[in-house]
Amino acid sequence: MSGRSKGLNGWLLSSPALILLLLAASGPLLIVAVYSVLEKGDYSGVRWILSGDGWFNVLFQRDIFDQTVSLADANLSIFWRSVKLSIATTLITFAFGLPTAWFIATRPPKSRALWLFLITIPFWTNLLIRTFAIMEVIRNQGILNTFLTWTGLISEPIQILYTDTAVLIGMVYVYLPLMVLPLYAAIDRFDFRLIEAGYDLYASRWQVLRGVILPIIRPGIVAGSILVFIPSLGAYVTPRVLGGGKNMMIGNFIELQFGQGQNWPLGAALSTVLLLVVLISLVVYTRVTSKDDPRG
Amino acid sequence: MTKQIAIDARNVGKIYGVGVHAVTALGDVSIAIEQGEFFTLLGPSGCGKTTLLRCIAGFETPTSGSIHLSGRDITYTPPNERPVNTVFQSYALFPHLSVADNIGFGLKMQGKPAKEVKAAVERVLALVKLEDFAKRLPQQLSGGQQQRVALARALAPQPEVLLLDEPLSALDLKLRKEMQSELKRLQTETGITFIFVTHDQEEALTMSDRIAVMSAGELLQVGTPHDIYDRPVNRFVADFIGETNFVEGTVEGSAVRIGTGDLLDVTLDGHSGGVTLAVRPEQVSLRADGSGIAAQIVAATYLGTDTHYTLELGDKSLLVARIQSNSAGGMRVGDAVGLHIDAGAVQVLSA
Predict the structure, then answer these.
(1) Residue A230: how many CB atoms within 10 A of its CB?
(2) Tens of pLDDT along A6-36?
(3) With an 8 Å Cβ cutoff, is B153 touching chain A?
(4) Pairing mode of beta strands B38-42, B193-198
(5) Is residue B320 within 8 Å of residue B243, measured between CB atoms?
(6) What residues of chain A, 133 to 152, have a C-beta less than 8 Å from chain B?
(7) pLDDT digits (tens, 9 = 90+) for B77-130
(8) ipTM summary value
(9) What domains are there in chain A, each with its CATH number?
(10) Looking at the complex, does the CB of residue B79 fall below 8 Å from at least one CB of chain A?
């Protein structure tokens, strides 16, 4: 068979996958990108007239009376909250996930399967139901406040629900398994004899953790952080239910534009921004975390 | 001249588990290892040699007894505070660090300035002849090279005692022979006390200044390779070190009468009654004229320089003789020969 027809055959054979990718992944993204540069329709949808308003409105607002331009503070605070909460979620899930994954990986092989099974149980339930369960725990007449009042630690219920803290608690709960599983996979491959080698070579416990364990399980840390950070940044259900109406994140803000806001170009521009932020943070994150890797 | 004692283990015992599940890994072991010595702990797997090594390294705490390093009690000192380094059986090299960073790890953890670490790493790299591999990662090296890195890493902080846990067991025969002389050279050059764990008696005999033979958590005999080989204290040691024929007999006056009825004039060392004679194959010689103990050759194994003959004696017992091939002069399987035992070299053991 000639090289040329081999190449043609290759394209033909992979065409189902290519068509699917084009239709399911690239197509919608393309539509979103196109909508972001069109003029908004009167009630919803778009008019097929080229316009920069969608992108302009991501960061700026024009006064409806005197047409003066100013920074859209509300938008900026939503972006900032999204990034802040996502980073906090990633850090907290790592802080809880590392000991959890370590615990599971150091159990006898037989009971490890059971522990992993327990970790994945929450996935069996719908996200919305799990989020309502969290709400039931933290609301003013919920389990937590009732318990704390009963013990006498507090006299008034603490307002947790409809705050950033509530959103954070919800996201940590929802995304913790996504951190634990890749960490577990990395620790499972870890050669525990290296810990003894570290101690033997005058390293303290802290130095063994920093100089031996963390660098070796880094692929797991990177994978877990990406798996938690990206869905956190685009989270919709959790901030909607636990943050109430006002503690919006980017996901809710985008939904608002396509719904009540009736501003599809702005929604499309925001979606594109979110995509770019995720891409850029991915690149930066993998660069930074692999900079001292001699393998390059 | 009395030598300084580097490691002094006093009545060290280690029991794992409690009650009916308790397993004794070390009974009651006392050893004094001299400074600058190449000392080998020898025994079959499960004899407690590795447990003793791990107690000296600090990875295990003895359940009884104490361990002293140059006079200081280190029984409960954590491993990172002992001037003792280990060459692990698995090498346990840090996969994320280059060869140079692996070797410098100990010094860095001790807080030595970067310049000093670099100089020490270069010196040790030269010592193990790996100068060209400083920037490589461990997985880019052969088994033998990884072994050298493990050695270099343990030597770099200049420990008072170097522990080696069967470091050569993963290497093929040729490389093992090379590393044996390499280890001996490094020990002489650095003057560091080496405590070497192995189950290979040949390795122990060729490398050690002194050997401790262990079995079932007990110390059976401590001595120079000559002592251990020529004067084993019991049947286990005689059997474990080299090849040995065991010949049963009874003391008669100043000699021992063996099963064939022949009398052997051996050094009795106060033994009486039933005894076992440990006869090394090379202490047996054969005469074609039939003088001595009557025997018949039932098998011959040619081993190059030597030939092993299996002989059947008058009482149907078997004995192995090792004869230099060029002096064996035409002896064949089936031949009747006369057998002589170098009685002065025979070790008498209690039966």
Answers:
(1) 19
(2) 778 888 899 999 899 888 888 999 999 999 9
(3) yes
(4) parallel
(5) yes
(6) none
(7) 999 999 999 999 999 999 999 999 999 999 999 999 999 999 999 999 999 989
(8) 0.84
(9) 1-35 (no CATH), 72-291 (1.10.3720.10)
(10) yes
